[in-house]
Design goal:
heterodimer, A: about 425 residues, alpha/beta, Urease, subunit C, domain 1, TIM Barrel, 2 domains, nine-stranded mixed beta sheet, five-stranded parallel beta sheet, 14 helices, B: about 325 residues, Rossmann fold, four-stranded parallel beta sheet
Chain lengths: ~425, ~325
């Protein structure tokens, strides 16, 4: 593996509070503080002028659909989409088919990832058997098999007692429980946020109260048990407030926001476009502003995509019948740069932190740093490049994106995993 | 302004001028319907497919009647015996209908937004005959047409819509049309079925039935469905009737010349006393009859006709 010398880039490493134009050196797959003069001659040089070099991005919430739904996405295609978006580590949700509630499925995901993935792919395990919310999955065994967290994502355990036992049991292994927060009794048949827009469109509403109630439930259980619960894709203003107050008491609660909930609102649903249908749904401008404020003051810990591929023919239905979810890996960085940096004046290193060091720390994953001696995962991007995003031309097997056909600002140029250049200028290396 | 729309999807997107054009065209057709030969040749040689994916009596028959009065051929699609029960998608069903060379599709569907979806897929005109809880534009047009026949201009007129507004496409279409026509609309019903968000559509929401009905010139009742009771929107039909049913006493609060409307099907003794439904202020059956002329107007205009070109019967 040749040494790499990234020259004259704006190097941002939140963990080291580094933000300066300079060089980055990689030898034998690891960052080094310097490169001896002799090695410099043999190193592959990447011109970093005008680019930002930061730790490879880390996404704690993706659906790669393998095994079982490989018509939507595979670990091969999903990991390539991730690489094209600057991500070097992703955490896969367990709602595969069969569900990742058993060692065999976890081992299969790990084997396929080792064979097909171009980035680091970590599995999560289910909390309950078949994600049915009825009986605990073999959590300890899943831990031994290598899951980095447990979650029933896409489903939400409705029984408070079962959730309590799951959290209490998982605490024994220091395993984070991640929850999709939704009270189903309040969201029967719901397809979008409940409010003025759903009233106008005649669509069944999903009230934010149904999220808030489970967020509050999880805060209560986390504090009662003293265990870490991570709240997935928070979308409601009230939930942000519940989390803020929980954190002020020192609760072991973390939470994520998605790029789409940060950028869009239910006002976008006026034409019943199914590429704006996801769960939790897009909410109001007030909610969106609360998510941004939540990221700013640390109430929300990270940005995660909830990359959820579905084929055209599955999405292309009446709004009521179209499946929930959009892809997000290839657009996450430009969307977040637009909303947080350009529109809301967040400092760039802070935004990088939300996508690198913090998600790594949240689950104890390697990466999220440029520290010498660590595995060299790098995202090199041009924060100013304008480009036309065409979801069909992307690396994901699916193209269900609300941003397809739009001009985005900020583009990933090169992605490096373990010192190896994986992606550069629109191409996966060696392909 | 000439009529330029090929589809009729919502009343929200129609201008006041367009609503008036449909009404003017409907008036002309209503006159032809009073002659001994009721048929006009306007759509001779055209085939209209009624794609009804949800049960309907009045609307489906009125659309068929309207198409036949315009001399069009009509094919009605029965969802129970069709490929949709074998899992064929709406897109495939609609593209097949177009491939069978239909000239126009009239769609009724339980999913809101599906007429808009079809209009983007197909090259032929799409007429919304009711989409979920979204809109029922021809009902809104025939309701306002009927109101105008009785009241003249609707500007400043006090209209009350009473009942299950949340799940009602009829209410939404009427709200949009009446707001454009300048009427003062008040929605009344249980708070679970009349969320405050409706005020954003330019109407008032009230829980005070007496205050709302006082001096109203139109009261439009909406069907109360048993399913809503099961879902906890109100305790019982009996309680609904006692709180919001229109009876003689409550009807006496109305303006003396007020008309009573209902899009049907009616639950006698639930949202309205049987006597009132059949009484002299009730225009419920006039609404049904006007539904033919209004739908003739819509089919005619969306097929490319202009309001001034309505030809008399031969």
């Amino acid at each position: 593996m040749p040494s790499l010398w990234i020259k004259h880039a704006r190097v941002i490493d939140p963990a080291a509070r580094r933000d300066a134009v300079g060089d980055l050196f990689i030898v034998d797959g690891k960052f080094t503080a310097s490169l001896p003069a002799a090695a410099r001659k043999r190193a592959r040089v990447l011109d970093g002028r005008g680019l930002v070099a930061c730790p490879g991005l880390i996404d704690l919430h993706v659906h790669f659909r393998e095994p079982g739904q490989t018509h939507k996405e595979t670990i091969a295609t999903g990991s390539r989409a991730a690489a094209a978006g600057g991500f070097t580590s992703v955490v896969c949700m367990p709602n595969t088919s069969p569900a990742a509630d058993n060692v065999g499925t976890i081992q299969l995901i790990k084997d396929v990832a080792a064979r097909d993935a171009v980035i680091r792919v970590y599995p999560t395990g289910a909390i309950t058997v078949g994600l049915k919310g009825q009986a605990l999955a073999p959590i300890g065994t899943l831990r031994r098999a290598g899951v980095v967290a447990i979650t029933d994502d896409g489903e939400c355990i409705q029984s408070n007692d079962l959730m309590r036992r799951a959290v209490e049991y998982a605490k024994m292994f220091d395993l984070v429980v991640m929850d999709h927060c939704q009270d189903y009794s309040m969201t029967q048949g719901a397809v979008m946020n409940e409010g003025v827009v759903s009233t106008r469109l005649g669509l069944r509403g999903w009230p934010n109260a149904a999220e808030d109630i489970i967020v509050a439930r999880n805060v209560i259980l986390s504090e009662y048990i003293g265990a870490h619960i991570h709240l997935q894709h928070i979308s409601s203003k009230f939930s942000v407030d519940v989390i803020r107050r929980a954190k002020s008491r020192g609760a072991r609660i973390t939470a994520e926001a998605t790029p789409h909930h940060l950028a869009l609102t239910d006002a976008a649903l006026g034409t019943y476009d199914v590429n704006f249908k996801m769960n939790p749904p897009l909410r109001t401008e007030e909610d969106r502003q609360a998510l941004i404020a939540g990221l700013r003051d640390g109430t929300l810990d990270i940005v995660a995509t909830d990359h959820a591929p579905h084929t055209d023919y599955e999405k292309d239905k009446e709004f009521d019948y179209a499946p929930n979810g959009i892809i997000g890996l290839e657009t996450a960085l430009p969307v977040v740069l637009e909303v947080l940096v350009r529109q809301n004046r967040f400092k760039l290193p802070f935004v990088i932190d939300l996508l690198t060091r913090r998600p790594a720390r949240l689950l104890g994953l390697p990466g999220g740093t440029l520290a010498p001696g660590t595995d060299a995962d790098v995202c090199l991007f041009d924060p100013e490049e304008k480009w036309l995003y065409d979801a069909k031309a992307g690396f994901s097997k699916s193209s269900n994106s609300p941003w397809s056909g739009q001009r985005l600002t900020g583009r990933v140029k090169t992605t490096i995993v373990g010192g190896r250049m994986i992606y550069s200028d629109g191409k996966i290396f060696g392909e | 302004m000439p009529w330029t729309r090929r589809h009729l999807l919502t009343l929200e997107q129609l201008s006041l001028d367009e609503i008036e054009q449909v009404h003017a065209t409907a008036r002309a057709f209503k006159r032809t319907l009073q002659r001994s030969v009721r048929k006009v040749p306007a759509l001779r040689g055209k085939t209209i497919v009624n794609l009804f994916l949800e049960p309907s009596t009045r609307t489906r028959m009125a659309f068929s009647m309207a198409a036949k009065r315009l001399s069009a051929d009509v094919i009605s699609f029965d969802s129970a015996s069709s490929s949709t029960t074998k899992g064929e998608t709406l897109r495939d069903t609609a593209e097949n209908i177009q491939a069978l060379q239909a000239d126009m599709i009239v769609i009724r569907h339980s999913a809101a937004g599906s007429p808009l979806y079809l209009s983007r897929i197909l090259n032929i005109p799409v007429i919304n005959a009711g989409d979920g809880a979204h809109e029922h534009p021809t009902q809104g047009l025939l309701d306002t047409f009927t109101m105008k026949e009785h009241l003249g201009s609707l500007r400043g007129r006090k209209v009350v819509i009473l009942g299950d507004i949340l799940f009602s496409r009829v209410a939404r279409s009427n709200i949009h049309a009446l707001a454009k026509m300048g009427a003062a609309v008040t929605l009344v019903g249980p708070s679970t079925l009349v969320p405050h968000w409706f005020t954003e559509l330019g109407v008032s929401v009230s829980r005070d039935l007496r205050g709302a009905l006082a001096d109203a010139e139109v009261v439009m009742l909406l069907r109360i469905q048993h399913e809503r009771q099961a879902a906890g929107h109100f305790p019982s039909l009996g309680e609904y009737t006692s709180m919001f049913g229109l009876n003689k006493t409550r009807a006496s609060w109305l303006n003396p010349k007020a008309i009573i409307m209902h899009p049907g099907p009616i639950n006698r003794g639930v949202e309205i006393d049987s006597e009132l439904a059949d009484g002299e202020r009730s225009v419920i059956l006039e609404q049904v009859t006007n539904g033919i002329a209004v739908r003739m107007a819509v089919l005619f205009l969306c097929a490319g006709g202009q309001p001034e070109n309505v030809t008399p019967a031969e």
